[in-house]
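All the exercises in this workshop are built on plain-text protein records. A record pairs a protein's sequence with a compact description of its fold. The structure tokens are whole numbers drawn from a learned vocabulary of backbone shapes. Once this layout is familiar, the rest of the handout is easier to follow. An example says more than a description, so a record of this kind follows.
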Amino acid sequence: MAVRDGAVQRLENELGEQSSLFKNKNFLLLWGAALLSSFGISFFLFSESWYVVNVLGLEASLGILYIASSIPRLLFMMISGTVADRYSKTKIMFLSDFIRGLLLVGLVVWFFLGGITLWTFVLFAFLFGILDAFFWAAESAVIPSIIDKEQLTRGNSIIQMTNQASFILAPMIAAAIIAFGNYQIVFITTAVMLVIASLLIFLMRTPAKVDNSKGQEKFWDTFKEGLVYVKGSRVITLIIATTIFINLFIVGPMTMGLPLFVKKQLEGSALDFSFLESGMAVGMLIGSVVVGVLNIKHNRGRVSLLSLIFGGVSFVALSFTTELWLSIVCLSLFGISLSMCNIPFIAALQSLVEEEMLGRVMGLVSLASMGLIPVSFAITSAVLAMGVSIHHIMAIGASLLTLYSMFAFMRFKELRELD
């Protein structure tokens, strides 16, 4: 009887945690903004990539496009976390989304005037990269200020579920709009979504800071304080190393590779490309649901590393598929693994790091994870130019990631036993 009562009490506690999140006005506003932002950005990224590959016929130049967005992200991420710790995180997020919306209105006007080239998208990718750098650091740091620590895993998983649900639908809708309409409609829809998202963020009210010492401290002293903090934590250092490997070996081959993989390996269309991206989004949604239901509070490091190993194996399998349905299955399994790796790591960091340091820590983690992405894009482009097929590039990158993940699991006890 006592065991039954204990089980009932645990169930009531779990339901109470979920209920309190959905009664939290700030969380609901952030949730709505995340839905609109992710839906809009997914529209834009899908349409941008397919326009360059299918309309301009410059598939080998995708690397230039991605490098153009990655370099400003890399440069401004060096200071984005410090800015987030010194100023209002919600204002930073608001300005980022609002300005991106205005930029897309400008892109639509450019379409009507004519003269769209690869360099048009390079310019917009560069500007988006700057805004992304500040948005990501602020978003990661604002979540612990609006929900309790016990709810961090669930809160992050709900945001991720929302993002991935939008990524399932958005590529297919964008492909349909392109097929029956035009690219201008996709971009103006994205602009509207981002502007509305910025307004929802504007309505958020986070707790005011009592300590004003950061405002009096010099900017670069605050920045250096964050570096020292990260350097002094072996766990954070190991997480940074892991994110570096993920982005070096997977992001370039995956981001550049999927549209090429669809066109060359699967001989598919824009709709097939959207199905493949949606398959990954479905997997990430499933992984987010699993993490959210379990609300993992312990053994987060073990779960993350094992998931990363499985994800690497799934991506290797993807690279050798020749049927669309099998590619979707492999990419879905990879998506599940990615969510079950990322969410526990993020929640663990948000629980571990003091709130006044969180912006700088997340900014530096993002910087480290993004730092080698331009290198990944450059290497992928160079190897493609040498005539190596995209599926071989994808297989090699995923194999290296799998080997690193296995090494990290066996060698780094601190990371494996991270709660």
Observations:
- The two ends are 31 Å apart (CA to CA).
- The chain is about 85% helix and 0% strand.
- The chain has a mean pLDDT of 79.
